[in-house]
Amino acid sequence: MKIGIRIPSLKKSIKARTTGALQRKIKSVIDPTYGKKGVGYIRSPKKALYNKVYNKTSFGFFGLFKKLFK
């Protein structure tokens, strides 16, 4: 389990920003639970719990600057 600062990945950052709204629309039409809050606990409770703890115990590199200059 990672505790502390997360190292940014340029590749993953670009992928997240370029995944289009059309692709998300198509997924939400096919799967009615896509993007809905709380579905992760139903589909994969172990992964959802891990992600919850991970996001509470670690922080992003650029998050440091947001906190400092806010």
Key traits:
mainly alpha
Structural notes for this entry:
The two termini are about 30 Å apart. Helices cover about 65% and strands about 10% of the residues. It has helices at about 10-20, 20-30, 40-45, 45-55, 60-70, and strands spanning about 5, 60. The chain has one domain (about 5-70). Strands 1-2 form a two-stranded parallel sheet.
Give the structural class.
Answer: mainly alpha
What summary fits the major beta sheet? 2 strands, parallel
Strand content: 5-15%
Mean pLDDT: 85
Helix content: 55-70%
Order of helices and strands: EHHHHEH
> How far apart lie the N and C ends?
29 Å
How many E-type strands? 2
Task: Please indicate the count of domains.
Answer: 1
Uncertain stretches: none
Rg, Å, rounded: 15 Å
The helix tally amounts to 5
Largest sheet: spatial strand order: 1-2
Shape: extended
Give the oligomeric state of the chains in this entry, treating copies of one chain as homo and distinct chains as hetero. Answer: single chain
